[in-house]
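Hello,

Our lab assistant flagged a job as stuck in the queue for most of the afternoon. It eventually completed. Since we weren't sure the result was trustworthy after the delay, we are filing this so someone can double-check. Below is the sequence as submitted and the structure that was eventually returned. Let us know if re-running is recommended.
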Amino acid sequence: MYKVSIHPSFSINGKGLLVDDLLELGYSYIKEGAEFEKEIGQFVLDWIDSSSTLKVQTSGSTGVPKSIELRKEYMTNSALATGSYFELSPEDSALLCLPATYIAGKMMLVRAMVLGLNLYIVPPTSNPLSSISRSFDFGAMVPMQVMNSLPFANQIKILLIGGAPISPYLRSQIKTLENRCYETYGMTETVTHIAVKPLNQFNDLDKEPLFKTLPEVKVSTDERDCLVIQAPKVSKDRVVTNDVVSLLPSSEFKWLGRYDNVINSGGVKLNPEQIESKLSNIIGQSFFISSLPETKLGEQLVLVLEGTSEEKGLLKKITSSKVLTKYEVPRLIKTIPEFLRTNSGKIKRKETMALLNS
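-- returned structure --
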């Protein structure tokens, strides 16, 4: 049994709420609310019941997506760590524009209840700030939402961004914003982020910062050079990821790509995400790097484009740019009308390749 604590300053849309009020709110959302409100209502009821754990759906960062149980104590610890790191205070305003289906949306609710924030809830659309005139002290979005909200993004003083890769173009636009934006690293198993890095408001604009772990989080790498996380405040077990990283002694690391995306071409291991980063200023449409079987090499690099393109001209442009090593230059270019994507906008690489090959 775990007795949750609701901060006396907690409110939703300016209305203070205690445990009994949350019970009524949860039932009301489930019975009469829109679909995204039903998810919020169900989570609120699950949070204030007497159980010490609750079930959440993983996104697949450490393997196949699955349902796992998280201890409410760990979720509370995560909320407190975030509040301390970003110096959030009771009655600060926060925006919830993410669905409560996954951990990111759930934890915005937990942070508000634990830290005593004034939470404003809006539908989790692709452009959540378009009809909002007020500002907020704190908020979180996926990159697609940030891209669509660039003219209004300064309305959120501290903005966390995660859930999908941030394109180089969006990174360049974020650097011009006057608020504080942070890229987050984390997953369901670690109760959202265990590391963050600033995307703007740092001194050397030519040298992007690395991910810095939050207090009481230790990181290492395994034999695959994948990140291993030890965070006893939010997980009793070590979390072994599929993220290839370059680790620094100062609890900082650089994310290089996904191990399950690594391509072995003629004995040379290549990280598609690193190649994509190099090509981002050359290719003006959505794309990703993948591979196809090849007799001599085992796997050959393939550039996959969304839409149409003049393939020979593009390949010549890539080769003449000299941004890639000879091993990183794609041997083939394939096009497909539209990529398959997750709800957060992340490209489903394997499913898109299967569709392409079919």
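-- support follow-up --
The delay was a queue issue, not a problem with the job. The result is valid. The radius of gyration is 22 Å. Residues 9 and 215 are 26 Å apart (CA to CA).
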